[in-house]
Known about the structure:
Strand content: under 5%
Number of helices: 4
Order of helices and strands: HHHH
Mean pLDDT: 82
Radius of gyration: 34 Å
Helix content: over 70%
Number of domains: 1
Number of strands: 0
Structural class: mainly alpha
Amino acid sequence: xxxxxxxxxxxxxxxxxxxxxxxxxxxxxxxxxxxxxxxxxxxxxxxxxxxxxxxxxxxxxxxxxxxxxxxxxxxxxxxxxxxxxxxxxxxxxxxxxxxxxxxxxxxxxxxxxxxxxxxxxxxxxxxxxxxxxxxxxxxxxxxxxxxxxxxxxxxxxxxxxxxxxxxxxxxxxxxxxxxxxxxxxxxxxxxxxxxxxx
Length: 198
């Protein structure tokens, strides 16, 4: 089974045809875009794609960091919850084992159950604060991940624009050059949306 031409062979053939076309004295099409403008456009789009990639990577890192912090907060929340349950169970055990606790006669038992109830309440309050912080960090992670997706989409569109601008140099087709500009405009929209957090 015979394979088709390799990409570099296609480029070489296009270049040969282009040089052969000019050697015969044919004028370039009037609708052709300027190779210089296409090359500059491709270079500018490459720079923008590199900047977009940095923003995309930063947003992804921030999303991972925020999610890691949220996971730590949830583990801390669970530890506080476990300690609170231990105090609750300890209070129940003291009440169950002290026959005079039901009557309220034993001062030591009353003090112990009051202390256990106080600690249980303290842990419940701390647990709520930790839960709120964990949820805030999860929201931050989702926001950063959303930014990452915006930046990544913008970078992909910039890469499409680079390819279209580059091919427009070879085939001297204004439509391809125009498409590269459209792709770049949409890409910039995604990059700006990522920057402002939309």
